[in-house]
Amino acid sequence: MHSEDIKLLMKQASGKSVISFAGGMPNNDLFPVKQIDDIYNSLPEDIKKLCFQYGPTSGYPPLIKSLQSYLEKKGLPVQDNKILITTGSLQAISIITQEFINEGDIVLTENPCFVGALSVFETFGAEIHSIPIDKDGIDIKALKRKITSLDRTPKFLYVTPNYHNPAGIIYTPERKKELLEVLSGTGIILLEDDAYSDLYFNEDEKYLTKPMKSFGIQGVDIIYTGSFSKILGPGFRLGYMLSSPEIFEKAETIKQALDACTSNFMQILGNEFLAQHKLESYLKFLRSEYLERKNLLQQSLEKYMPNTVTWNEPKGGFYIWLKLPSHIKSTDIFKESVTNGVVFVTGRTFDPASIKDDRLRLSFSNMPKDSIEKGVIILAKAVKKVLKNAKVKSS
Ligand SMILES: Cc1ncc(COP(=O)(O)O)c(C=O)c1O
């Protein structure tokens, strides 16, 4: 079960004494602590009181309004759709799964796939079928083959097209379009998870992050989810979904039964951050900080990794996805590196079948800059040792 992988991951990611490339989390030292202090301190007394109160299930109305203009800037069709504020975007994924999935229904995912989503799909008894991705996005031929080979129509396809977790890739605009064309008319809903799109490294490549829901292709129902976790901090537990009014209505009822509403405290602080136009300058700062960490990690990998280990250079987000020679496993490297104080996430964690293990995910986001090189030296030693042992065994 992927839920066990997640429990282990959360523990490793927050371990103090290890060098952790494991956590898919923002950097502790970059949080906008002072800005949030100022925002709260300058709130009028009546809004402070509202922070402590319940609110509407769909969300704090001023936040919905701020989000509408934020999402409109991404080209999203906000007027024809409705926003539901959720307690993290994982809750949105969970609500959508509850809305559409009965035990044994088919969900399509990418392979590899965000492990949190896999855990949700498994919890609701979905039959998961996964489709490989390459450096440009989901494998279109494999997706077509999969859809025609199934005896039932899948309920939805879940994808993370922008700065994929764990693969670090971004879909090309062509691949996004092809994907929509394949789905159009099939009755398969597209669940577009967009947790990382604001974290591009290069302004010139911002256009690549354009959501599929903004493409205007007919015949495919798209539910778009987003999150404040990777930009303001997961402690906010603030996410949202944008969907047709019909999908929204049932989702709102499910959310009502789950937690009545997302914390008003966090919604009010999040809204002020947006409404006072603090987000854009903060994002500029984050982008340069994460780019610096990505460059440091990449330089260290180039310097220390054996040349049989390869990877794609990410254009944004938090992750580098290493490819190992196919005869060694990332689980074996993990066993070796953890004893020397370095952790990461093994490839099999992100395989819906928990088998494929020739990859490993390194997260550079929550890394002190001066630990990156040290961590890679230890990791490279572990890789070399596992490679050497494999050679001895085969000779
Ligand atoms: C691809 C992806 N989607 C969704 C989430 C969930 O984020 P949250 O529930 O914190 O909004 C994550 C967190 O790691 C993620 O990587």
Automatic annotation (TrEMBL):
Keyword line: Aminotransferase, Pyridoxal phosphate, Transferase
Organism superkingdom: Bacteria
Cofactor(s) of this protein: pyridoxal 5'-phosphate
Gene Ontology molecular function terms on file: transaminase activity
Annotated Aminotransferase class I/classII large domain residues: 39-375
Alphabetized SUPFAM superfamilies for the sequence: PLP-dependent transferases
Protein name, entry field: PLP-dependent aminotransferase family protein
Organism listed in the record: Gaetbulibacter aquiaggeris
Origin organism lineage: Bacteria, Pseudomonadati, Bacteroidota, Flavobacteriia, Flavobacteriales
